Amino acid sequence: MSFPQTRLRRLRENAVLRESLVEVRLHPNDFIQPYFVVDGEEVKKAIKLMPGIYQYSIDQLLKELDSATKLGINKILLFGVLEADQKDDKASEAYNRRGIVQEAIKAIKEKFPELYVITDVCLCEYTDHGHCGILEEGNVLNDETLDLLAKTAVSHAEAGADMVAPSDMMDGRVQAIREALDEAGFSSVPIMSYAVKYASGFYGPFRQAAGTEDFKGDRKTYQMDFARNTAEALREAQADINEGADLLMVKPAGSYLDIIRVLKDSNIQVPIVAYQVSGEYGMLKAAAQVGVGDLQKMVLESLIAIKRAGASLIITYFAKQILSENWLSQK
Ligand code: PBG
What we know:
By secondary structure, the chain is of the alpha/beta class. The chain has helices spanning 15-20, 58-71, 100-111, 143-159, 173-183, 204-210, 230-243, 257-265, 278-289, 295-309, 319-324; strands spanning 31-38, 44-46, 54-57, 75-81, 116-121, 134-136, 139-141, 163-166, 192-197, 247-251, 272-276, 313-316. Helix 8 (257-265) links the parallel strand 10 and strand 11 (272-276).
């Protein structure tokens, strides 16, 4: 049948029917809100390129989480931010049991035992050169980095982290972390691996927020080349599953919806998480600021697209704003 018998507008005409036929809905449980934690007290420092996002000292973070949890935020992703003089070539602070992330986890779990705390496991916030692993003559060493990542993950679990999320892109890190967690008695702590992580131009504001702007060169020898191929994404995903990953992440999200969909349609049967990264956040904020469009509409559209592509969870800096401004209950 074709026009005029077929009229697709028939199903769009009535608002009740339109709303009832919606296939993809956003829910507060879909979201993971990232937070940046720094040393000190009474610190709530705005991040220039990410309006509405701050670096918090632990006391201020607890205050922030008080309002966030009341709004329905139930999962967070934690990043530690250090002063330059706290960093060294071995990323010692990353696996210091009294390090900033470890202390933050303890404080958070004490005050908000129900809040699900996920930690980013990487060395770049802790190395003086800013790369995600041990550096030797300009090369990021793979195998030498694994042990430190595993130690970092265990220190997070010891502090009370519910889940760890390695974002370094070394080969074999999921296996190293899984073994170390199991050995330390944390066999029930899941690993959400940043399995498919591209060497993206969209991480700029994050690097400002995490204090990792000043590294030499690029991350192309460990993060993936976005112009390469889809098969590589599948191999990365498969490798991480074989090593014991429980959830897989695609990052960034917006420019990689095809990759999310390919993974979703593949035989990879673990939940897919998508990270709407700092540059995506910054772009949407900046676009709304200059009048390109309405922030709420653009953000919800971008997140629906990510979910429609196949993501079960979305890490987004917008999570709290969405809930605090009640965006999910408005049409
Ligand atoms: C650290 C890490 C990065 C992000 C998350 N973990 C940045 C990087 O690889 O330099 C980016 C997150 C964002 O842009 O929001 N390895």
